[in-house]
Amino acid sequence: MIKVTFSGMRGRLQTLDRLEREQLPFAAALSLTATAKEVKAVLVEEMSSVFDRPTRWTLNSVFIEPATKARMEARVWLKDQDPGSGGSAAAEYLSPQIYGGSRDYKGTEKMLYRRGALSSGQYVLPGDKLQLDAHGNIGRGRLTKILSGAGLFTEEGYDANATDSARSMRKGNRRYFLIKKGRTAIGIAERLRRGKGSRNNIRMALVFARRPAYSKLFDFFGTAERVAQDALPIEFEKALARALATRRQ
C-alpha cells in the first residue's frame, strides 16, 4: 500500500499566512485525495503497458481511500476481495509481479491438493496446445470442464464431475483423465478423437509443474512515489486556491 502524505512539503507549509493556515485542513485533504487519484490513473496505465492483455478486473483493482481532515493521508492499493467467481483477489495474484518470487496456491490448486491429485510443491499450468481466453488465461468454463471430466471438480455442497450418463458422453467431458508418471500425477490429459487412418492419441490439457518464479514486472511503489512527488505540490496549490476562494465568498 502506498500512503500519500505531506512529508517533504514542510518548507512550503511554513510560508502559509494566517488565512491560508485556517484553510489548511480542507486544502490538505483535497490535495492528498486528488494526488491519490492521479497515482491510481498512472498505475492503471502502467498495468496496461507491462501486462499482456490484462483483464478488466485487474485494471479496475486499484483503489484509493480518500484523505479527510481527521486523517491527513490518502491510500492507494489493490483490492483484496476475490471477484466472486472463485478467482483470486488482485492483491494476491499481482503480488509476485510487484515483489518478485513465487506465488501462493490458487483456488483450483488448493482443491486438487485436497483431492490428493496435486503433490506438495506442484502448481497447475496450461498445456502447450490448450486454448486460452482473450487475456491469455484458462477460461473458467474450460477449466471446470477439464476438472469435471477428470472427476476432480468439487466445491462445498456441490459436485460437478462428469458421469457415465448419456448427457456427459454427448458433451465429451469424459475424455479428460489424470495422468501419472510412476505414482506421481504430472497433469490432466485429453483423449483426442481418432482421426481417419490414425490411432487414438492424447495431449496435455493441464501440466503439474514446479512452483513458477516471477521477476518484478510491475513497479507499483516506484511509480506511485514518483507520481505523488510530482503531483502533490501542484494539487496542493490548486486546492489551497480553491479553499481560499470559497472562504472569501
List keywords for this structure.
249 residues; alpha+beta; four-stranded antiparallel beta sheet; three-stranded antiparallel beta sheet; 11 strands; 41% helix; elongated
Question: What would your notes on this structure say?
Answer:
By secondary structure, the chain is of the alpha+beta class. It folds into two domains: 2-85 and 215-248, no CATH class; 106-211, no CATH class. Helix content is 41%, strand content 19%. The strands form four sheets. A four-stranded antiparallel β-sheet has the order 5-10-9-8, with helices on one face. The longest helix is centred in the last third of the chain and has 29 residues, at 220-248.
Taking the alpha carbons of the first and last residues, their distance comes to 38 Å
Overall mean pLDDT stands at 84
- Tally of separate helices: 10
- Radius of gyration, taken over Cα atoms and rounded to an integer in Å: 26 Å
Topology, number of strands: 11
